[in-house]
Write a structure and sequence with these properties.
single chain; alpha+beta; five-stranded antiparallel β-sheet; 31% helix; 19% strand
Length: 296
């Protein structure tokens, strides 16, 4: 029986005043009989025993969420290892490389600024003509007979046919000092002259909503451009270098000069041009695994 003056005290304090002999048995019995106060969930669930966490729905949810986060982090750490492992499987290498290169080309195309110019340079910065490297695909001179030469145009154009050099030269001439960058690792600043490819596409009535422009060459080389690059104001049908007619070694009578692209995109000895939405072949080097965009 609890004295009247103890009834107003909390049950734990009542127990201690009744049993002051040092024995904790009655206190423990009273505490066990009393309802346990509701305690907030611990901030660090790791301090709660595993069996309690599993039994308690709130703690179980916290535990599962923490496990999922840890699992994701561990998987992210393993991603480079898994990728390297995939590359180690010969039958997957080509497919993975193609997918990676395709993704890179798509990103590059999305970020290509159609009207943004490539750097141009003062005349004093131009590499002397005799030091401009001659770089060919098969032969330095495929033996084009200039008098018989024409550029055959087809595909999505209003005025297909054969165009002579004089017709191309009748378009406004542009001369520009721009850098030529070779995939082999060298670059030089050259002086190039010719007609804007965009002006020629307008002359032939090209459908500029088409995706590509494909060219083939007298030395059996072939190449393609996305339409945005073809329409860039610095992309030239080049028939001059250093204010002189293009030499045979540098691609006479007509080549591409594209300062926003790497050198292998700038095909020489042009004989055929086609506007299209579907490419049968992308380019000589691209079809061997090189980038199809390769912007600078």
């Amino acid at each position: 029986m609890v004295p009247e003056n103890e009834k107003s005290r909390p049950l734990g304090q009542q127990a201690k005043s009744v049993d002051s002999t040092g024995s904790e048995k009655r206190s423990a019995d009273l505490d066990a009989a009393s309802p346990a106060p509701v305690q907030p969930v611990a901030a660090d669930v790791r301090s709660v025993p595993t069996d309690v966490r599993q039994a308690h729905p709130v703690l179980r949810a916290v535990n599962e969420r923490k496990f999922a986060q840890t699992s994701r982090r561990e998987l992210l750490k393993l991603t480079p290892v898994l990728a390297l492992g995939a590359f180690a499987i010969p039958r997957l290498q080509t497919s993975l490389l193609k997918r990676g290169l395709g993704w890179s080309d798509w990103i590059s195309g999305e970020f290509f600024r159609r009207g943004h110019p490539a750097p141009t340079f003062a005349d004093r910065e131009v590499t002397p003509f005799e030091r401009f490297p001659i770089n060919g695909y098969d032969v330095d001179d495929p033996g084009v007979i200039f008098e018989n030469w024409s550029l055959t145009v087809g595909g999505a154009v209003q005025r297909p046919g054969d165009y002579k050099l004089a017709q191309i030269q009748s378009l406004p001439r542009v001369r520009q000092n721009t850098r030529h960058v070779c995939v082999e690792g060298w670059d030089v600043i050259g002086r190039f002259g010719g007609a804007r490819l965009s002006d020629f596409l307008q002359m032939i009535g090209a459908d500029t909503s088409a995706r590509y422009l494909a060219v083939s060459c007298a030395d059996d080389y072939y190449e393609s451009l996305d339409m945005a690059t073809a329409l860039h104001p610095q992309t030239l049908l080049c028939y001059e270098m250093y204010d002189q007619p293009l030499t045979r070694e540098h691609g006479a009578p007509l080549r591409l000069s594209i300062p926003t692209k790497v050198g292998y995109k700038q095909a020489k000895y042009l004989i055929d041009l086609k506007v299209t939405n579907v490419l049968e072949k992308v380019g000589y080097w691209e079809d061997q695994g090189y980038s199809s965009f390769y912007g600078l």
